[in-house]
Design a protein that fits this description.
Blueprint (H helix, E strand, L loop, with lengths): L8 H8 L3 H8 L7 H14 L5 H8 L4 E6 L3 H4 L3 H16 L3 E6 L3 H12 L5 E5 L7 H8 L3 E4 L15 E5 L1 H14 L5 E5 L5 H14 L7 E3 L4 H14 L5 E4 L2 H13 L9 E6 L2 H4 L7 E4 L2 H14 L15 E5 L2 E3 L5
Helix pairs in contact: 1-2, 1-3, 2-3, 6-14, 7-8, 9-10, 11-12
């Protein structure tokens, strides 16, 4: 059984009684076609079932209707952490609404960076959305050399993002303010030996949350700070360290909900009642985690899905211009979303 040939621009033009050039302009969204002719073309497209050839159209428009989403984490982390699923959901919804394809790229080592760099410079996508960067990550430099419009998830912290350098578009939440609110809540409960389990301190979100913790407590005993890595395992290790160093601690602010879930397991193992003996506050308000911990987790909410949607929306607004948006002071051009404390049973 032979397959029917695909309808062509010429066939649409003949059906509509217009020139091939007119059909091409209508199909590619050119507004300079009289509405009566455009309607004839659209009717012919529907009748014939014509589907534009994206490869051919990209030669004309120099657009590929595709955006790369680059996550600077290994796949084992990305697919285990609901944060990434929520952010990808927001990105995907925005791109889908504009008929843009999402191309997911993950990086774990040097070979992956080279592969991503080759792909981004190869003319396959119109722009990039990049998040979960670490401070020594080469990706910002790779992307800058590719000349692609880019929006980052998270406050930039690499050297190229410092004042005086070209600014960088980004979306983030108020990490420092959210941390302050969490610690003030714990202090307001009468807790006076408040510990902090950080995130990975080569990421700006973790640094900002640690700074917010210190904003409230001042020159805190360094024994009350233990470094984690935004994972449940990191939370467990850090919680054991803290209990060994300061057995009478009475509160913990964890850098994210996954870290808090690990801390809660260790507190339970050590016979510490939550919140009676130790109050715990997390960060993110990822419902699959925060509502299912024992007890349910008091946490700082950030709008993760909305952050992803805004990243995509910012990129799509500037797709035609490969130059970064700059501010008069040369500072990063960012959108920072507010956070809010969600009170549950753990504090």
């Amino acid at each position: 059984m032979t397959e029917e040939p695909r309808p062509t621009l010429e066939a649409v033009a003949a059906r509509a009684g217009v020139s091939r050039a007119t059909v091409s302009r209508v199909v590619n969204g050119d507004p300079g076609v009289r509405e009566v002719l455009a309607e004839k073309v659209r009717h012919a497209v529907d009748e014939l079932g014509y589907v534009p050839n994206r490869a051919a159209r990209s030669l004309v428009t120099r657009r590929h209707d595709a955006v790369a989403v680059v996550i600077a984490e290994p796949e084992t982390r990305v697919f285990a952490d609901p944060f990434f699923a929520l952010q990808l959901r927001g990105i995907s919804k925005e791109l889908t609404a504009h008929d843009i394809q999402l191309v997911l790229l993950l990086t774990e080592g040097r070979d992956d960076h080279e592969r991503v760099g080759r792909y981004l410079t190869g003319g396959h996508v119109d722009g990039a959305l990049v998040f979960s960067l670490h401070l020594d990550d080469p990706l910002p430099g790779i992307i800058r050399r590719a000349g692609l419009p880019t929006v980052f998830g998270g406050r930039p912290g690499w050297p190229q993002a410092e004042p005086g350098e070209p600014s960088t578009s980004y979306v983030d939440c108020d990490n420092r303010g959210g941390a302050r609110e969490a610690v003030r809540h714990l202090a307001g409960l009468g807790r006076d030996r408040i510990a902090h389990i950080t995130g990975a301190l080569d990421q700006t979100s973790a640094v900002d949350r640690l700074d917010g913790f210190r904003d409230v407590l001042g020159d805190v005993d360094p024994r009350l700070i233990a470094e984690g890595d935004f994972t449940p395992g990191g939370g467990e290790r850090a919680m054991r360290e803290l209990l060994d160093r300061v057995p009478d601690l009475d509160a913990v602010f964890a850098a994210n909900d996954l870290t808090a879930s690990g801390a809660l397991r260790v507190l339970r193992e050590r016979g510490r009642r939550v919140p009676d003996d130790v109050a715990v506050v997390g960060f993110d308000d990822m419902l699959p985690v925060a509502e299912q911990t024992d007890p349910p987790l008091t946490t700082v909410r950030q709008e993760i899905q909305e952050m992803g949607r805004l990243m995509a929306a910012m990129l799509l607004r500037g797709r035609g211009d490969p130059e970064p948006t700059t501010t008069s002071a040369g500072e990063p051009a960012g959108v920072v979303l507010p956070t809010s404390l969600v009170r549950r049973a753990s504090a």
